[in-house]
Amino acid sequence: LPFFLSFPFLLMVLAMSYELSLDVALVATLSRDANRLAAIVASSEDAILGKTLDGTITTWNAGAAKLYGYSALEMIGQPVSMLAPVELRSEVGHILDRLRGGDRVEQLETVRVTKDGRRIDVSLMISPITDERGKIVGASTIARDITARKRDGRALQNLTGRLLMLQDAERQRVAAELHDGLGQSLAIIKNRAAMAQRNDASQDAVLEQLTEIQATATSAIHEVREIAHNLRPYELDRLGLVVAIESMVERISDSSAIALTADLDPIAGLLSPEAETSVYRMVQEGLNNVIKHSHAAAARVEVKKDGTQLVIAIRDNGNGMPAPVSAENGAAAGGFGLAGLAERARMLNGKLDIDSLPGRGTMVTIRVAIPGDTGE
């Protein structure tokens, strides 16, 4: 028989056909994997771009277009350094040098510039790309916008500084009250007791000193109670949040020209003791802002249960605020008070809203979720 009809030839043909079918299946699998990977990259929320080792952009996904504002048509073929602010252009060169040496860049936090000129904080993860021989031919960059995180971090840092300053100021205030008030009262009591102990003191003189000692001691007791109340209102522990707020409103109304009213739902047991303290302090800080800044004739405090939320509202008919304010710029608009309210609301997973117009008063609303309440 001719060789091409022989058994060894036919066996070789079968083997080649089998290997070819395996190669075709492998190519199909690799093609599907490549298409799947390309789809993942294209649809990723993160900005993903490819570049050559000289920094020329070769690929640009939808996430990059959303983050930076440039389309793929605008960016492919452009130098990646155009995304860096002028003062950080050298950083791009250093990164490319590291990539040429085979290094990866993990979680580099830096600044980039968008098409409209905005500076944004980004976290970059940059990896070298190799060809089939293992040679480095380019790099891929995954960029994530961390502007909001950075802003929140700076705000928290500023607030922490303010809290420390406030803590020091509060300690100084308490120390001054103890020294100037209670300390002076105790000194008077001591001196009058010494005068009453003198051998030549008549009974009438001793009685006079004892009467003065009693009056001074009574005044000192009131001062101690006032200091203790400012540090921690006893009504909050003994009588509950609603009575404590009512007592606060009554005291402030009696000592100021502002007509204060309150409308409080029975909310006993809805919040933890820690959360009740925060709500009390938020009402206290809100009313302090009204007294210090509003020049209002009247103000109202409302604490209402609204479904699964507790809503605290403090409104006044005062001057209002000169510019729109929010939790972010509240500190600048109204001193520490609004920033403190925002932070207390955040700690309770709540939300602070400020509605204010010049000449039309201000309304501060805090919404706090009630733990375990389904609204039924």
Features:
five-stranded mixed sheet, five-stranded antiparallel sheet, elongated, 376 residues, disordered N terminus, alpha+beta
Spatial shape: elongated
Main sheet makeup? 5 strands, antiparallel
**Average pLDDT, all residues:** 80
Name the helicity range.
40-55%
Strand order across the biggest sheet? 2-1-5-4-3
Number of helices: 11
Total beta strand runs: 10
Compute the CA-based radius of gyration: 36 Å
Which range does the strand content fall in? 15-25%
| N- and C-termini, Cα separation | 92 Å
Structural class comes to: alpha+beta
Low-confidence regions: 1-7, 24-28, 37-41, 328-336
Helix and strand run = HEEHHHEEEHHHHEHEEHHEE
Compact summary:
This protein is of the alpha+beta class. 53% of the residues lie in helices and 21% in strands. It has helices at residues 7-43, 62-68, 72-75, 89-100, 147-196, 203-231, 234-238, 241-255, 273-294, 330-334, 336-347; strands spanning 47-52, 57-60, 105-113, 119-130, 136-145, 259-264, 298-306, 309-316, 351-356, 362-369.
Please tell me about this protein's structure.
With 376 residues, this protein is of the alpha+beta class. It is 53% helix and 21% strand. It contains 11 helices and 10 strands. A hairpin with a 2-residue loop joins strand 7 and strand 8. Helix 5 (147-196) packs antiparallel against helix 6 (203-231). The protein is elongated.
